[in-house]
Each structure stands twice: as structure tokens, then as C-alpha cells.
Design goal:
The structure is a single chain. This protein has 413 residues and is α/β, with parallel strands linked by helices. A hairpin with a 2-residue loop joins strand 5 and strand 6. Helix 6 packs parallel to helix 7.
């Protein structure tokens, strides 16, 4: 039997030690233990990957992979089979990628799983995205944005037409922010507003929102879905991602014709979103008229309050901090404790830049000026860059300077 109490070890190690031999392991219980360990750690993803001599089980906690346990390689096929059964995948197929979803029972506290299985030379690699139903509140005020950024975002959401775009790498908080924005609109306007989304995939079911999932295998793409949604009389439309020129053109047109469109686009910095859309052959005059704002997002790990202590960063890191800020900085880092699993970090904080389009910026877009020039104009108009926001977090002791440099290194180049 698996011990119910959680001691120093995780559920998985407790269960394995309770078995006399690997052959006696009940795979369904083992898989539950793996998911429980990931959930207990607050992980967003669980990686189960065959290495040379063992199965490496790792969890992505606060954006960083940590090792949970190593398992014998002979268990790989059984673990893969179990996840396939849970996610209603083809159990006899081992040479092709498969994706599916599953909802854990009472023993997993109803945690939702998005299962991805991918063939490798050593066997199938399994990555499971975890969605905890106990953490489904989407409140803009609880996301951790600075007051100025939060107020600016709320002002943009008051507009009834135009595009609001979010940029950032995978796992930077874009979806959570967009969901929170939709919930803010619902709380403000109630049942008087019609909201529709097109996503790939739908990650959470939102009340009072018509959500649609694209299906490229049946040619139900973002562009096809958007064309149909325009006939559904929506006031607010969320598009999971602007990936191609056709989707971009429809989204811009929707923003120009009385719809508030919220979406994401891949771009290093906020100003780069305009260059990206121009490269998709969207006319600059249409962008200048339709785009309300662009928010760049990153996530940095928060210093654990239970073990935080003052420290002096090494000179190699301090050289990126302006001298006038060093004297008043309160650099902190976590020593490591039980509360943070000896990592020194607990949770994550957003680092953001909100570019609100104004008249000088519109004129620059019309002239097709380069991204660097657009960014400089935005800074002159009051934009607080990602690097400035991250540095402010480190100076206030909310995260470490090393963490800011790690996450925003590309923005320093």
C-alpha cells in the first residue's frame, strides 16, 4: 500500500520503497504518485524521459526543470501505456507522436492533464502539462503586475474595438493574462457582453465564454474559425495566437470593425510585434489604426520569504546595474528551506512592458521605421522596458539579480 503521509520523500519514492521488487509495482498507482509529486511541487509540466540507464522523471517548477526520481527502464512501456489509456490515445501505436487530455480522479484532486507522447531512439518520451482546478482564479489584480502596468492594461480593456497583443516565449504567462483580461471584462460588464475565443488547445473552461478549439486535421484553422466567429455577433474575441498572414489580416479587420481582439504574437520585444505584422503583409496604416497596445511578458522566480537574506551580487552581475541604483538596492536571495524545497524560490513574478500606442508611435509605424527606432520612440513616450521592470524587481529584493539576467539575457544584447 502507498503510505498516505508525506514525509521527506515524495509519493513516488515512498511507493517504490514499499514494494519488494520492481515486478510488483502497480503502474496505475506509480503514475498517480508521479502526478501527485509534480502537483505537490507546484509543477507546470512533468517530463518522463528514457536516458541511457534509467527513466529520468523531472518536473518544471517555477520555469526550471528539477529531478524528481529515476526509474528502471523496464517500466517505460508500462508507464507510457498507462498515460495512453488515461488520455484515450492509441495504445498499440508507438512510432508516432500522440496528444490527448485526461482528468484525474479523486486521488489526483481532479488535476487536468495534457499528455504528449513523442517517439525517441530510446523509447517514448512523455510530457504531461498539469492544470490544477484549485488554482483557476483569473484575477488581473492577483497576477502580480506593478500598479502602473495594471492600470494601463485596464484602461486598454475599456476600449470597445482594436487589438491588444501579448508577446513572450512559451510559459511566460500570456494565456493566464489573457484569461484574466477576459474575466475582468466579464466581471465589469456581466451578461451584457458576448465573448468568443479560438484556442489551440482550450486550456481552461471559462464561464459565460464561447470557447472553440482549432482542429487543423479537419482544416478548422484559426483563420477559418475567425471568419465564422465574426458572424456570431461577438464584442470581445480572443485568438490564441496570430501565426499566419490570413489570421493576422482577419484579426486586424475585426479590430477595425468594432471588436476588441486579444491575441498573442511571437516577438522578442513589444515594438517588434509591429514589424512582425508588417512582414505578414499587413498595411502599416491598418496597424496604426487597429493596435491599441502590446504587452511583453516574462516570468522570474520569486525569492522565498521564509529563508530570504540580504546578499551582495558579484561584480560581474553588478556591472549591469546603474551606479545610482546600487546604493539603494536591497538585494535578497533565499538560503533554501522546507517551504521552497531548498531552492530559495517560491512562486513566480511577472516582468512586463506595456506599450500603449499613441499618436507619435502611430506616425512612426506609418513610416515603417525599424523595431529599434520604434522602441526608442515608445521609451520617450514613457515605456518601461522589460529590463527596467526586471531590474526594479531585483533592487526591491523580490527576485535575485542572477535570475533577472538569466530570464532577460537576450534583452541585454
Amino acid at each position: 500500500m502507498r503510505p498516505k503521509a508525506l514525509n521527506d520523500m515524495g509519493y513516488t519514492e515512498q511507493y517504490l520503497q514499499s514494494e519488494l521488487a520492481v515486478q510488483g509495482v502497480e503502474v496505475s498507482v506509480l503514475v498517480n504518485c508521479l502526478v501527485q509529486d509534480a502537483s505537490r511541487l507546484g509543477a507546470s509540466d512533468l517530463h518522463i524521459e528514457p536516458w541511457e540507464n534509467a527513466i529520468a522523471v523531472r518536473a518544471r517548477v517555477n520555469g526550471v526543470l528539477i529531478e524528481v526520481v529515476h526509474l528502471p527502464l523496464e517500466l517505460l512501456d508500462k508507464i507510457s501505456m498507462r498515460f495512453k489509456v488515461m488520455a484515450n490515445l492509441v495504445t498499440y501505436q508507438a512510432g508516432l507522436p500522440q496528444d490527448g487530455t485526461a482528468i484525474g480522479g479523486a486521488e489526483l484532486d481532479g488535476v487536468q492533464l495534457r499528455v504528449s507522447i513523442f517517439p525517441t531512439t530510446r523509447g517514448e518520451k512523455i510530457v504531461v502539462r498539469l492544470f490544477d482546478p484549485r488554482d483557476r482564479r483569473f484575477e488581473l489584480s492577483e497576477l502580480g503586475f506593478e500598479d502602473s502596468t495594471l492600470q494601463g492594461l485596464m484602461r486598454v480593456l475599456k476600449r470597445t474595438s482594436g487589438l491588444l497583443l501579448f508577446t513572450g516565449p512559451t510559459g511566460s504567462g500570456k494565456t493566464s493574462t489573457m484569461y484574466s483580461a477576459l474575466c475582468h471584462v466579464m466581471q465589469r460588464d456581466g451578461s451584457s457582453v458576448s465573448i468568443s475565443t479560438v484556442e489551440d488547445p482550450v486550456e481552461f473552461n471559462l464561464p459565460m465564454v464561447s470557447q472553440t478549439q482549432v482542429n487543423p486535421a479537419q482544416e478548422f484553422t484559426y483563420a477559418v474559425a475567425l471568419k465564422s466567429i465574426m458572424r456570431q455577433d461577438p464584442q470581445v474575441i480572443m485568438v490564441g495566437e496570430i501565426r499566419d498572414a490570413e489570421t493576422a489580416a482577419i484579426a486586424v479587420q475585426a479590430g477595425l470593425t468594432g471588436h476588441l481582439v486579444i491575441s498573442t504574437i511571437h516577438s522578442g520585444v513589444s515594438a517588434g510585434a509591429f514589424t512582425r505584422l508588417i512582414n505578414m503583409e499587413i498595411e502599416p496604416f491598418m496597424l496604426a489604426s487597429s493596435v491599441l497596445g502590446v504587452m511583453g511578458l516574462r516570468l522570474v522566480r520569486r525569492v522565498c520569504d521564509h529563508c530570504a537574506q540580504r546578499y551582495e551580487p558579484p561584480p560581474s552581475q553588478l556591472k549591469v546595474v546603474p551606479e545610482e541604483l546600487v546604493s539603494r538596492a536591497e538585494f535578497r536571495r533565499g538560503a533554501g528551506c522546507e517551504q521552497c524545497n531548498q531552492t530559495g524560490f517560491s512562486g513566480r513574478l511577472p516582468v512586463s512592458e506595456l506599450l500603449v500606442v499613441d499618436e507619435p508611435f502611430r506616425e512612426a509605424v506609418l513610416k515603417k521605421v525599424p523595431t529599434s527606432a520604434l522602441e526608442e520612440i515608445a521609451i520617450q513616450q514613457g515605456l518601461r522596458t522589460l529590463w527596467q521592470s526586471g531590474l526594479a524587481r531585483a533592487i526591491a529584493g523580490q527576485t535575485t539579480l542572477e535570475e533577472v539576467i538569466r530570464v532577460l539575457a537576450a534583452d541585454l544584447l
